[in-house]
């Protein structure tokens, strides 16, 4: 019999019944997120074990993948386990050296805001707040300028629960974890009633008029390392040698990061080595867009260069430079910030999207001197009770501005709303121009 007669003989309801699914699914009860618990830390694999397993399964790691594992692993990551800042840690930051540093930054933000508006209500957003010392010094100055609890709020971008708790204990009279469905995962309130919120991503911070502070934040963001060979740009990877130790190797072929990242203007000039952080470029663009669309200022302070360096990846342990591939998880991984790349990512463009007016980078010693930091230094010296205290204050300041220490290595860069361009031509920005 011809096939078409067979199909004609079948009624439509029968065909539908044959194709209909009966109970082809199963209802699964989802667990309550509030009852989930982290695994026992004693059972967690070491950072080295995690890295070895990833290399065995997926092959060599990019430097960015390696940094991400070492820094942010939930149980064994460098910033997840302990307080790493200060004399007893692996490195020290400018706010920990002298209160003058945070006070000068507060004066800069306040003075530049007056060129735009009153600056109330105000969000203060800090990326990677460390020990919260900078915020404490900044709040002390704002109190002198008349800011009250209902005039401002603090928004801290911090991925480490250990550091969140440390910051909360220093800043807040009360604090607590929040519901998982809120954009912030921790909240608190200072003695004076200022609300404080913690986030694991800048994208979750409300879009309002804000001061954005990124002090020694960009230098820890994962980088991809590249080297120019006779066959073109190739990526530096990390693999295991025959003794199960980590070592570098150059990729034989173009990797995806080479194709997507190493292109003009990022590879401009005759550079033979290049470091690019996609996350740094993305966050710089976020900051610029927020400042331009919702108002405010962003200030980046970090050690870095303006595009002249290519190989800066290293590690710090107990204030000394060590091999970044040795004992992963026990030392601070870092790379100098390429401010020329941040400028490219954040600057005004001739198209419809304007982003921000970008100023800098300028050397830390120049920024502080232009902000008349020595005037404040003298006040602190005059207020000191003993000669020993006076000498300590002087020594701390010299560490900040000495060209052989932090004065030249650390740089400042600022983002202003694009609408401020004409105003800045008439009233030069403090810290980024020489006072007349």
Characterise this structure:
It is built from 16 helices and 18 strands. The strands form three sheets. Strands 2, 3, 4, 5, 6, 7, 12, 16, 17 and 18 form a ten-stranded mixed sheet that branches. Strands 1, 8, 9, 10 and 11 form a five-stranded antiparallel sheet that branches. Strand 9 (232-240) and strand 10 (246-250) form a beta hairpin. By secondary structure, it is α/β, with parallel strands linked by helices. The longest helix has 17 residues, at 278-294. The protein has helices spanning 3-9, 12-19, 47-58, 63-72, 78-81, 94-97, 99-113, 133-144, 161-171, 256-261, 278-294, 339-346, 364-370, 373-383, 387-401, 421-426, and strands at residues 61-62, 122-127, 152-157, 174-177, 186-189, 195-199, 210-215, 224-229, 232-240, 246-250, 273-276, 296-305, 314-317, 320-322, 332-334, 337-338, 356-363, 410-417. The chain is globular and about 60 Å long. The chain has a domain at 84-221 and 275-424: 3-Layer(aba) Sandwich (Rossmann fold). Pfam families: Methyltransf_28.
Instruction: Give the name of the CATH architecture of the domain at 84-221 and 275-424.
Output: 3-Layer(aba) Sandwich
Could you state the oligomeric state of the chains shown?
single chain
Total strands: the figure is: 18
- H/I helix tally: 16
Q: What is the CATH domain class of the domain at 84-221 and 275-424?
A: Alpha Beta
Low-confidence stretches: none
Gap from first CA to last CA: 102 Å
Helix content: 25-40%
Q: Per CATH, what is the topology of the domain at 84-221 and 275-424?
A: Rossmann fold
